[in-house]
Design goal:
- The complex is a heterotrimer of chains A (234), B (457) and C (344).
- With 234 residues, chain A is α/β, with parallel strands linked by helices.
- In chain A, helix 3 packs parallel to helix 6 and helix 6 runs parallel beside helix 7.
- The two termini of chain A are 34 Å apart.
- Chain B has 457 residues and is mostly helical.
- In chain B, 39% of the residues are buried.
- Chain C has a two-stranded antiparallel sheet with strand order 1-2.
- Chains in contact: A-C, B-C.
- At the B-C interface, helix 7, helix 16 and helix 19 of B face helix 3, helix 4, helix 11 and helix 14 of C.
């Protein structure tokens, strides 16, 4: 059993069914990517894993424990962390305050974790007294990662971290994500830029209309003729 | 149970209005016809106001917290149009007042022009301040002169002495003008700005009316406004009216002696004259209310109305389709305020006197709001129904509250001071009561009694 | 007659009749405006009940201090009203939390335009609150200050300085300015330095992310109402000690308070304070009659014979409105960058 596992998930928005028995999983120290066309339910998978949307069927397990019935906040306390696609920082707070807010639920001393974030993203240390809204797009994404890491999560969920950024910033963000993975976390992300994402992914899920269409390692998927034709533009 | 519900759903417009009518009939028969008709007429005027507010709120979600200000503009128009001019006052200070207002207007226009031309801001400010000081100098002199003319009776310029019906139109136009100005500034900004700005403009209109005695006599009120309907005294003396009343009460009168008959007939005629005059007003108000309802329904089904509804149902989609929401909202805001202005003019026409302190800004503004929301925002008939229900409750809640207190008092012998205190203050609880009604409807039945289809709050 | 003395006299006059009153009025407005700002930042609507809430808090103070005076629980020379504040604060907090529980909470849970539903609901609350206040205290004006009226009076000042023109410092003015400084300092310390305060800012900044970070929304809202109770009760009491208590007057404070908030930049605490002083100073500067001031400064031949008042006192509310309109025309975001909360 994988570290984080969503199994046979079924979910809908009101009467509109979105997910049909969809399964995803990720191990510690592994980067898994969910790709697929618009409306395939990629972000919905995230929401279900986080408990922001209730699944009508299927289960979510973390380290073997069933967390399907927990609230979002309890799942976060259990070790899940989430970086939303947009509005993922507190714009009128400083970088440091953003990190402090990330560790809000922790009762113990968080200064060591803040230092770890600074080690991972040194630029944030330089800008720690600046407001998040004054940073560049890539730096803001680092703040968002850093904030999510403050709970010392074992799993990091990222919703389209590179949406709407330039190719240079995209590379920067991907390298940040690899840093996060190399720090030992399980990283699961939804990505629009399928080609680049699969290139760095250990594992990939191709979702179509809420169903698993293809599953495999990043390399396998890129080399798969059908996947290339349908999703990677040849 | 389900059956009753289905019947109610199918006929609720007719049913609810019938119930309301029956309640008023009950009041007429048990309390007095004059009271019932008084409530009826005020409900009609409130209904017109509610219609105006419904157009703004129900059609476009625009907040107007200054309804009393717009209504007061209507009231002022009645004085300015229908009162006879006070020639002595005009001779004394009219020219000077005119001059000062011209200087004021010139100052404003110069200021705006200088600002547009991009002339130095400080220079512009200096010009405006100097213009203001000159205006103010002449203005206060003129106001003094006018206010000194027979202050106990006139002390103001009077009006144009035109037929009172004109004032209804002018009242509408005045309110529309104020609404256009406010709307132009605040529409397109955040929603709450309009609410705050209307609150402000309404306060200022009322302050001007209360303080500028030369204008409409300020706190001294204006009495004896002309009427569009006959006077009670004239009715009592007209023979045909007496004959009709005698005929109506034939059976009762026959039982009496001749001298008693004359006395009794006199009482009947006096009562009937009051009722008759009120009925004249009723028909006038019904006609105007009906005209507004028909017009607004016609407008809603025109191409213009379809656009309004498109914007109401989905602002984002409508703006994506290139519809100019701000312009549309401005039109709706102006139209709604104009209707409120007309209703304000009708209110003063009905009262026959103009009392600035009667415009208690938020209190009555708020009543109109409760009417619209209770009736069902977006639904014209709902607003009319809401007006009847709320006005009825507002009038009857005071006496009913007192009655409850007295009932309690009969049972509790001691604590006379406490009871007196409550009797003195019980009418304030109407505010609490109305606030509670508003919150309860919002919470449990946001559509109101007659919900508009496909419309959320 | 020496000129320099006259200039000092003229400014003593201005201090007494313009600067001190404006400082204390501005402080009262600032506290009210901060309460509006707090509600706006956290609950995302303009609280139309603010004026009447201030009346409610003051009512509690009046009732409690009345009881205390009747029992003789007073400190000689010190306004009993101030001593009554802590207890009134408890009552005010309960009232606001109750209103939140009964009225506002429901709408936070549903997807609806918070700004619109919030205004409508707060107007309902405003009427209920206003009705309760009038029921208990009546609608007429009253004074409830006791204790020493002046820190130093005109006579003491004249005797001390030898100036012809005196300055008096009213106890209410002194208390207003002192308490306002303390409260504002406390608020900024709380918001900038404490964990709960930062959580409030985070919640106001980005509600979704605050929830994801494990910030408890109910707690944030609760603390907000407690702060609102604090600011509202004290603002109302100070205003009442200064100018007397009248429900309608309090109700109308809504206008200058909203003007302050918008002028400063809606949602910005510093803006609210700056806006409040701008409104207060404009109001008092423009309605002050400068006759005596000019007599001190100008040679005899140029002495004015009118009051030299720019705007009649009766139009003081118009001034806040005009300032509001000018700001909306020129810079709708306000002097300080406010928080633009998009309707969700």
């Amino acid at each position: 059993m994988a570290y984080l596992e969503g199994k046979n998930l079924v979910a809908s928005y009101g009467v509109v069914p979105i997910l049909h028995e969809c399964s995803v999983e990720v191990e510690k120290g592994e980067l898994a990517v969910i790709v697929g066309p618009n409306g395939a339910g990629k972000s919905t998978v995230m929401r279900v894993l986080l408990g922001m949307l209730e699944a009508t069927e299927g289960s979510v397990t973390l380290d073997g424990k069933d967390i399907s019935m927990l609230s979002t906040q309890d799942r976060i306390a259990q070790g899940l962390a989430f970086v939303p696609q947009t509005k993922n920082v507190f714009p009128s707070m400083t970088v440091e305050e953003n990190l402090q807010m990330g560790g809000f639920i922790r009762e113990d001393d968080i200064s060591k974790t803040i230092e770890e974030v600074y080690e991972l993203f040194p630029i944030l240390y330089e800008k720690r007294k600046q407001l998040a809204e004054e940073l560049s797009g890539g730096q803001r994404q680092q703040v968002a990662f850093g904030r999510a890491m403050m709970t010392r999560p074992s799993v990091m969920l990222l919703d389209e971290p590179t949406a709407g950024v330039s190719p240079i910033v995209m590379d920067e963000i991907f390298s940040n994500i690899l840093d996060v993975r190399n720090a030992g976390m399980a990283v699961l992300m939804v990505e629009q830029n399928a080609q680049q994402a699969l290139n760095i992914a250990d594992k990939g899920f191709v979702l179509v209309s809420g169903r698993n269409e293809h599953t495999g390692t990043g390399k396998e998927l890129i080399e798969d003729r059908e996947v290339r034709k349908k999703f990677l533009g040849g | 149970m389900n059956n009753i519900k289905a019947i109610w759903e199918a006929n609720k417009v007719i049913a609810s209005f019938t119930i309301m009518g029956l309640i008023l009939l009950f009041v007429g028969m048990n309390q007095s016809w004059a009271l019932a008709l008084g409530i009826f007429n005020m409900s009609l005027i409130s209904a017109i106001m509610a219609l105006g507010v419904n157009i703004q709120w129900g059609y476009a979600g625009l907040f107007n917290v200054g309804i009393m200000g717009f209504a007061a503009l209507g009231g002022v128009s009645v004085v300015l149009i229908a009162q006879q001019p006070v020639t002595e006052a005009i001779d004394a200070g009219g020219m000077k007042m005119f001059l000062s207002l011209i200087i004021g207007a010139v100052t404003v226009i110069t200021g705006v022009l200088l600002n547009r031309r991009g002339v130095n801001k400080w220079l512009t400010a200096v010009v405006v301040v100097i213009g203001y000081l000159i205006t103010r100098y002449y203005f206060s002199e003129a106001a003094d002169l006018i206010e000194k003319v027979d202050p106990a009776i006139t002390g103001y310029l009077g009006g144009f002495g035109l037929p009172i019906a004109f004032s209804w139109i002018v009242g509408g136009l005045a309110a529309a003008g104020a609404a256009w100005w406010i709307g132009k500034i605040t529409l397109g900004l955040r929603t709450d700005y309009l609410a705050i700005a209307t609150l402000g403009i309404s306060e200022i209109i009322l302050y001007v009316i209360k303080n500028e005695d030369w204008f409409v006599r300020g706190l001294k009120n204006v009495y004896g406004l002309p009427r569009p309907v006959p006077y009670e005294v004239d009715m009592q003396q007209s023979e045909w009216f007496q004959n009709i009343i005698a005929w109506l009460h034939k059976s009762e009168l026959q039982l009496l002696t001749q001298s008693e008959q004359i006395d009794q007939l006199g009482i009947y005629v006096r009562e009937a004259a009051v009722v008759f005059v009120k009925l004249c007003y009723s028909s006038l108000f019904i006609a105007i209310l009906g005209a507004f309802i028909i017009l607004s329904n016609l407008a809603l089904n025109s191409p213009w109305g379809r656009k309004v509804r498109a914007i109401r149902d989905n602002e984002v989609a409508a703006s994506a389709m290139g519809k100019n929401i701000k312009r549309q909202h401005l039109q709706i805001f102006v139209i709604g305020s104009a209707i409120v202005g007309v209703a304000g003019a009708l209110l003063v026409t009905y009262d026959g006197i103009f009392i600035p302190t009667a415009y208690q800004p938020l209190r009555f503004t708020f009543l109109i709001w409760v009417m619209v929301i209770l009736g069902g925002s977006g639904n014209n008939l709902g607003s009319v129904l809401g007006a009847f229900i709320i006005w009825f409750i507002w009038i009857q809640a005071g006496p009913m509250g007192l009655w409850v207190v007295e009932m309690l008092g009969n049972n509790i012998q001691e604590g006379g001071v406490f009871l007196e205190f409550i009797e003195d203050r019980v009418h304030y609880l109407r505010l609490v009561f109305m606030g509670t009604i508003l919150l309860l409807i919002m919470r449990f039945s946001p559509g109101g009694i007659l919900p508009e289809k496909n419309k959320e709050l | 007659m020496s000129d320099s003395i006259d200039i000092i006299n003229a400014f003593a006059l201005l201090t007494n009749f313009v600067i001190l009153p404006a400082l204390s009025y501005g402080s009262q407005l600032a506290l009210g405006a901060l309460a509006v700002t707090l509600v706006y930042s956290i609950l995302r609507f303009s609280n139309f009940a603010q004026g009447d809430s201030m009346a409610f808090g003051t009512m509690l103070v009046i009732l409690i201090s009345g009881y205390m005076i009747s029992k003789g629980w007073t400190i000689t020379g010190f306004p009993t009203a101030i001593l009554a504040i802590p207890l009134a604060l408890v009552g005010m907090s309960i009232y606001l939390l109750l209103m939140d529980r009964l009225v506002y909470r429901h709408y936070r849970g549903i997807k609806i335009k918070q700004s619109i539903v919030g205004i409508t609901a707060s107007i309902g609350v405003m009427f209920i609150t206003g009705g309760i206040v009038r029921f208990f205290l009546g609608a007429s004006a009253q004074r409830f200050g006791d204790g020493e009226r002046f820190i130093f009076s005109v006579r003491e000042f004249k005797a001390f300085t030898g100036l012809q023109q005196g300055i008096a410092l009213k106890t209410s003015q002194f208390l207003t300015i002192t308490l306002a400084i303390l409260l504002v300092a406390f608020l900024f310390y709380f918001l900038q330095k404490t964990k709960t305060g930062k959580a409030m800012r985070a919640y106001s900044d980005n509600k979704e992310l605050a929830l994801l970070s494990g910030i408890d929304p109910d707690k944030v809202v609760r603390i907000t109402w407690l702060l609102v109770a604090l600011f509202t009760t004290i603002a109302g009491t100070l205003y009442g000690l200064d100018k007397g208590f009248a429900p309608q007057q309090y109700h109308l404070l809504l206008l200058p308070i909203f003007a302050s908030v918008i002028v400063g930049g809606i949602g910005s605490p510093i803006g609210a304070i700056a806006g409040a002083f701008l409104v207060a100073f404009s109001e008092i500067f423009l309605t002050y009659a400068y006759k005596k001031f000019l007599i001190y400064l100008l040679p005899l031949s140029m002495h004015p014979n009118s009051l030299v008042q720019l705007i009649g006192t009766e139009y003081k509310y118009a001034i806040s409105f005009v300032i509001l309109i000018i700001v909306l025309l020129i810079k709708p975001t306000g002097l300080f960058k406010g928080k633009v909360i998009v309707d969700e």
